[in-house]
Amino acid sequence: MRKIKIGIDVGGTFTHAVAVEVQSFSVIGKACVPTTHDSHQGVAEGVVASMKKLIQKAGISPEEIVLIAHSTTQATNALLEGDVAPVGVLAFGRGLEGRLARSQAMLDDVELAPGKILPVSFAFFNTKHEITKNEIEQAIRRMQGEGAKVFVASEAFGPDNNRHEKLVLEIASRMGVMATAACDLSQLYGMRVRTRTAIVNASMMPKMIETANLTEMAVRESGIRAPLMVMRSDGGIMDVNEMRKRPILTMLSGPAAGVAAALMYARISDGIFVEVGGTSSDISVIKNGMPQVKTAQIGNNRLSVKTIDVRTIGVAGGSVPRIHKNKVHDVGPRSAHIANLSYSAYATDHDFDDIELETICPKKGDPSDYLKIKRKDGSYTITPTAASYYLGLVKAVGHGEANLRAVKSAVENVARRIGAQPEQLAESILEITSRKVEAVVKSLIREYKLDPGFVVMYGGGGGASAIVPHAAKHMNIKHEIAENAEVISAIGAAMGMIRDTVERSIINPTESDIIRIRQQAYESVISMGASPESVEVQVEIDNANKKVIAIATGSSDLGTDRKGVQLNENELLVAASEALKVKPAQLQLYGKTNLLAVVGYERIRKHFFGLVAETIRPALIITRDGVVRRKFDNVVLRNSSVEAVKGIVSELIAELRSYGDGGELMPDVFVVVSGKIIDMSGLLELSQILSLVEYDLKGIDPQEPAVVLAVRKK
Fold first, then answer.
1. Is residue 510 domain-shared with residue 635, that is, in the same domain?
2. Backbone angles phi and psi of 260, in degrees to 5
């Protein structure tokens, strides 16, 4: 029997569903329906409709489905549109800290977006005296009278003692109202940020829980018993029950799904990923086989939530050009469907001889110079999609090939009426979109210190061919359009890893502190459905901000590794050569386990006018089916057995440790064993590294092969 994962991406215009066969990673079915923003069931109706359409088209039986995962724009849209519930805050503290806590937790109404305000009520409890359940209940009822629908509990030093926060949850549950404890979202000190994060989370709970309930009910009524997962903003997935408690983690999950697919399906290890929709394009960086993550913000409000660093621009495949004095002076941000215009590229009647040109204001407050092509059968416009087709740049068709005769007629007739050459008109539209892409790409190259000579632009999304080929040509860099680009985010949802992050404020953490936080992250992803043997945990110590961070990732019981597909050594070298940008003949297989391999090569780098030569060893860790997991510019490595790992780690650290202005610099250390990468790159002391190595290798056969890698810090 086949084992199939279903991924669903809820976009601004369309909801896409795909079926991915687990062992081969092949897409065996696709379906698309309009996103149901205006339905009384909200986007849940489109999620279920796309799933049912997919199952019917692809001939999938319910028992074949092992996982369903979907991304969603709902959390982000709810914040941008102000479709949230008023919040009541119950804050706790005592003494001097209590007075400080009162000022930090007593926040003004929160601005979610320009003109969109989240009302906040407030109650403070001095814990110098015992707080009774009756006092908490009375405060909740008072704030209900002020309009609060959901509640937040936040306590001074809550990461150390959350007794009162948990008490509020207990009482709220008994009263039948929704509530969030700040300690369930963040273990960091800083009551203002923790409270604000909890407020935003609570405000979206009613809408998100309603959607989750409708979706889960419809899925179960279809006879499907597979786990239902939701995409997170950091590129992982989580169980729908976890989403009910922490809906804030789904912000920007649509773009995150695209990045997940770029890593695991398109197998991008380095580059700029541009996902192009109809209205906007999301641009992100993948470096050394890893997405780049940042702290989320809503408006000017920093939150205790991590998101993939995605930059969104208001140009895409369906953007409408703006005309001034018969010249295109801008493109977007309004798209054809928002402006109620049809794509000339997909017109069924190709004749655009008999047309009138107008300029319109799509929405109140918009500029009034957007291009409208008035024809007897309706209103059209020329988009970057049409311009790209006209110039012959489209190679990947995606949703369907354009009507090339309609493209030619529309571009040439509009050009004639504004006194331009057709090629000039198409080029001007794409030149403007490319400049907007270029500004973001150059900023990301600088920020993440990418080598411009090796940057490749990868395109995903239904509008990829409308934007990416010209932008890459404009910037003189290589580009690729991902296979199945139009459903790339849905593929990412299906293939997403279960992920969670635990952060705690700790000054001078001990080995036991580190192991405890590592275990907390490990147990969190297990509780969300990850199989224990698949879980990897990266621990990082941030001395500047006095915190320890543990990031755990894992996969469901069936995993995401294609257990039935193993590349031979030559095939592995070919796959690695694409990521390392060298010929396969230059590569060596440095070491391997039963599921992972380390591949690299050596080159000589000269300094001081060629007088000093240094051997550099670029390398990567790659799965035995060809997916790059990590990439390094220069490593020192040793093959080992599990029982010898600690000794080799000590030797490499002694060899590679250095000293800078801030004191001793430890090398980044990684241990590859079985299908795991034990990542100790964030640890600062030898004792911490050795403790974590010992903990992570516990229970593994001492004779099992392992590879130890170390990277000297610059």
1. no
2. -60, -40
Q: What is the mean pLDDT of residues 474-493?
A: 89
Q: Where does a domain end: 389, 421, 453?
A: 421
Which pLDDT score is estimated for 531?
A: 77
Show the CA angle centred on residue 101, arms to residues 100 and 107, nearest 5°. Answer: 105
The reply to whether 56 and 100 lie within a common domain is no
Q: Which two tokens stand for residue 360?
A: 């319109």
Distance in Å from the first CA to the final CA of the chain: 51
Q: H/E/C letters for each residue in 406-475?
A: HHHHHHHHHHHHHCCCHHHHHHHHHHHHHHHHHHHHHHHHHHCCCCHHHCEEEEECCCHHHHHHHHHHHH
Paired strand residues for 87: 120, 150
Q: Phi-psi region for residue 198, left (φ > 0), alpha (ψ -120 to 50) or beta? A: alpha
Cα–Cα distance measured from residue 381 to residue 709, given in angstroms and rounded to the nearest whole number: 56
Taking residues 433-439, report their average pLDDT: 95
How far apart, in whole angstroms, are the C-alpha atoms of residue 223 and residue 262? 31
> CA–CA separation, 200 vs 180, rounded Å?
10
- For 471, counting Cβ atoms within 10 Å of its Cβ (0-12 exposed, 13-18 middle, 19+ buried), the class is buried
Same domain, 543 and 582: no
Q: What is the pLDDT of residues 105-156, one digit of tens each?
A: 666 677 776 777 888 999 999 888 888 999 999 999 999 999 999 999 998 8
SS (H, E, C) 99-110: HHHHHHHCCCCE
Tell me, yes or no, whether 588 and 686 share the same domain.
yes
